[in-house]
Amino acid sequence: MALLIACVVPLPAMAAADCQVDPQSQQALPPMARPAGYPRMRQQAHDVSLRVSVDAQGNPIDVSVDGATSPDATGRSAMRWRYRCEGIEGVAEWVLHLPTQHCELNLTSKNFNPPRYPPQAFRAGIQGEVLVGLYPQGDGQVARQAIIAQSSGSALLDEAALTAARRWTFDCGTGMDGSEPGQEVPLTFSLN
């Protein structure tokens, strides 16, 4: 009878450990933004609340974002970082300050350097959207870093998007420093 009761009555839930974001991983890949009105509207500085569920190895499992103008971009940023927990698994909660954007993508450079559809992907009928993450430099020239923020599912399309994005430039205003947020740029590869 005691065994039956133990199976029916739930055990008290174990408290999740408090976790912290690894500052080195956050510094290596600063937060991304995709401002409303992309690409011609710069995001103003603001705070967002993040809650990230973390597994025992410090990898993010799930993220919720509150207060972001581009919650998906901010959430994808949080999912790229590493975390440190005091237990088996846990939750990291904090307020993240997103700085003002001083740079915007120069559309002329983007239009003159479009991604080339990889012939092999074209012949195979592969389509998809790639989100490229670009971290501007202070001089407005090519990005200091370009990453795949969200894959299309095809390495061919992802590489074509990165190759094009590395040639794009930015128009940067005054006041830019090392905290400039990255920018997500969507690129669609479509056969029609």
Write the SSE topology:
Blueprint: H1 2-8, E1 17-21, H2 23-28, E2 32-33, E3 46-54, E4 60-66, H3 71-80, E5 83-85, E6 90-98, E7 103-105, H4 107-112, H5 119-124, E8 128-135, E9 145-150, H6 155-165, E10 170-172, E11 182-189
Parallel strand pairs: 1-6, 2-11
Antiparallel strand pairs: 1-5, 3-4, 3-6, 7-10, 8-9, 8-11
Low-confidence stretches: 1-15
What strand order characterises the main sheet? 4-3-6-1-5
Major beta-sheet overview: 5 strands, mixed
What portion of the residues fall into strands of 2 or more residues? 25-35%
How would you sum up the global shape?
globular
Helix residue percentage: 10-25%
Distance N terminus to C terminus? 67 Å
> Given the helix and strand composition, which structural class is it?
alpha+beta
Gyration radius from CA atoms, angstroms? 20 Å
The succession of helices and strands, N to C, reads HEHEEEHEEEHHEEHEE
The tally of strands reads: 11
> Would you tell me the overall average pLDDT?
83
**Total number of helical segments?**
6
Throw out a few tags for this protein:
single chain, 192 residues, alpha+beta, 5-stranded mixed sheet, 4-stranded mixed sheet, 24% helix, disordered N terminus
Describe this structure in words.
- The chain is of the alpha+beta class.
- Helix content is 24%, strand content 33%.
- It contains six helices and eleven strands.
- Strands 4-3-6-1-5 form a five-stranded mixed beta sheet. Strands 2-11-8-9 form a four-stranded mixed beta sheet, with helices on both faces. Strands 7-10 form a two-stranded antiparallel ribbon.
- The chain is globular, with a radius of gyration of 20 Å.
